[in-house]
């Protein structure tokens, strides 16, 4: 299975080059894959609440800022976690100490707001997932989420150099569109593979490329995500976690993120991330207790933007609610 996962990682790495994305970009999605895949809903035996804030390209006027709050968890007792032993809490357990996952349902909710220049995007989505064990250590989850996205333009902040620009006409109203995301998540205590598609709903205007109307409209492009990761336990205290994600739209070549993290005693982690032709990032975080964890990342541009900005900052705080087993490091989302 590890050979299969290494092959999957290399295959995904070979796919892509960078492209712009309509959806918010986060460096620490590795700590919250629910951001891109609804199948993650309810993967742990507790409710996972996360809030994240990102300020991108500091010093560049109109640069994006993003905020999200997500809450997802199982219905009922949910999946299983490692047996509560001293080694499981303070170091990495042997594979045989993990209990078999059980079939269960998961639900979730996420709200996001992204500001870039004059544009503000706000979205809310609710999700459902079903988790089905395939073997003692491997399970497959399928999920779906639906919601709405509102796009607003702050015309009063516009500094128009030419009069009569239809895109700056104050008669243009805010737009609201529906959203649909589907995903699949294959996982075990040692690996995961996920695929998902977002913004899959289209409306009639999206297909009307011959329209002569001067009024602009937003065309939401479907976004597709493929990701894979491994947890390689080096000894009782250290694990190395390589992962990769490819993001693609129908109108551009794929964008790729490659990540490498080291986890110590299931408590402290640090690592680096690389987005091809875009940025590199340093990441660090800690599982402070069975109730709270924190993460921070700093990105510096490797593109031409590095001359006009002072990097990007991102902070994520997570809360494990109703964590009756007092799990410190998640079993399935590490």
TrEMBL record:
UniProt signal peptide: 1-20
Keywords for this protein: Signal
InterPro entries, sorted: PorP/SprF_Bacteroidetes (IPR019861)
Region span, Disordered: 74-100
Domain of life: Bacteria
Coiled coil: none
Protein name: Type IX secretion system membrane protein, PorP/SprF family
């Amino acid at each position: 299975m590890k050979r299969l996962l290494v092959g999957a990682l290399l295959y995904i790495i070979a796919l892509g080059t960078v492209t712009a994305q309509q959806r918010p970009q986060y460096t620490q999605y590795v700590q919250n894959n629910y951001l891109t895949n609804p199948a993650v809903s309810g993967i742990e035996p507790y409710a996972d609440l996360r809030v994240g804030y990102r300020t991108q390209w500091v010093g560049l006027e109109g640069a994006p800022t993003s905020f999200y709050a997500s809450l997802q968890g199982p219905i009922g007792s949910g999946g299983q976690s490692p047996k509560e032993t001293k080694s499981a809490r303070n170091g990495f357990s042997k594979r045989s100490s993990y209990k078999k996952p059980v079939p269960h349902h998961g639900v979730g909710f996420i709200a996001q707001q992204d500001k870039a220049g004059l544009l503000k995007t706000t979205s809310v989505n609710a999700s459902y997932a079903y988790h089905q064990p395939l073997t003692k250590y491997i399970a497959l989850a399928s999920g779906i989420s639906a919601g709405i996205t509102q796009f607003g333009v702050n015309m009063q902040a516009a500094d128009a150099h030419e009069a009569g620009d239809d895109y700056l006409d104050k008669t243009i109203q805010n737009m609201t569109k529906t959203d649909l995301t589907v995903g699949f998540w294959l996982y075990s205590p040692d690996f995961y593979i996920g695929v998902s598609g977002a913004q899959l709903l289209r409306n009639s205007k999206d297909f009307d490329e011959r329209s002569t109307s001067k009024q602009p409209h937003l065309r939401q492009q479907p976004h597709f995500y493929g990701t894979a990761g491994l947890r390689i336990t080096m000894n009782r205290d250290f694990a190395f976690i390589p992962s990769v994600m490819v993001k693609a739209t129908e109108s551009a070549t794929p964008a790729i993120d490659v990540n490498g993290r080291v986890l110590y005693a299931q408590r402290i982690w640090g690592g680096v991330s690389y987005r091809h032709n875009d940025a590199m990032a340093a990441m660090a975080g800690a599982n402070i207790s069975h109730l709270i964890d924190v993460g921070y990342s700093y990105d510096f541009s490797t593109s031409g933007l590095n001359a006009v900005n002072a990097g990007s900052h991102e902070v994520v705080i997570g809360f494990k609610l109703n964590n009756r087993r007092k799990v410190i490091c998640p079993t399935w989302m590490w």
